Amino acid sequence: MNDKYIFCPMCAGSLTVQREARDEHDRLTCLKCGFVFYQNPMPTVLAIIEKDDQLLLVKRKNKPFKNSWTLPGGFVEVGQNLEMALRQEIQEELGVKIDDFSYFGSYVSQYHTKFIMEDIVCTVFKTTINNYEFKIGSDVADAKFFPKSGLPEIAPFKDVQAIIKKLIKEKL
Ligand SMILES: [Zn+2]
User: Fold this and answer.
1) Cα–Cα distance, 30 to 51 (Å, whole number)
2) Is the sign of the CA dihedral 163, 164, 169, 172 positive or negative?
3) Nearest Cα to 124, choosing from 162, 156, 88?
4) How far is the CA of 37 from the centre of ligand 1 (A)?
5) Per residue in 101-138, pLDDT tens?
6) pTM for the full model?
7) What is the residue-averaged pLDDT of the chain?
8) Who surrounds ion ligand 1 at CB < 5 A?
9) CA-based nearest residue to 55, from 153, 120, 150
10) Which domains does the chain have, with CATH numbers?
11) Better pLDDT: 156 or 1
């Protein structure tokens, strides 16, 4: 639970950490109106795109971890399922379409914003794409295939680090 939030979003009363009798988690609760601030992880999606023994990475253009390399993907928007979100991110970042998805795994992680450390749950798909002529979007600085034995410095996101570790292990 992130206890950095101060005011109730319903009535602007003060939020206090409380635990209901049948609840296994502490929650920020408003003592004035009773609103309970349930904090669920934000869903994100990442794509593993491979060509021969190479892995596609994108270079981050923005904070956090500006200029380090990571897997393409992003946050799921309201109204999207995981596949829709990943299609949109890949279209925006690389200008290509996803042909095929296969589930790789899901990971618990965190994302630092300017204000807060967001808890996220990341779903990862191995995907194939319709072509390799990328039109790089405004959110990324570069996109390149790297041999798995010679990857550049990867952004220290917990999920991305764990995924790449697993990918390299699979090859051994
Ligand atoms: Zn309130």
Assistant:
1) 52
2) positive
3) 162
4) 10
5) 999 999 999 998 888 899 999 999 999 998 999 999 98
6) 0.91
7) 94
8) 8, 10-11, 13, 30, 32-33, 35
9) 150
10) 1-38 (2.20.70), 42-171 (3.90.79.10)
11) 156
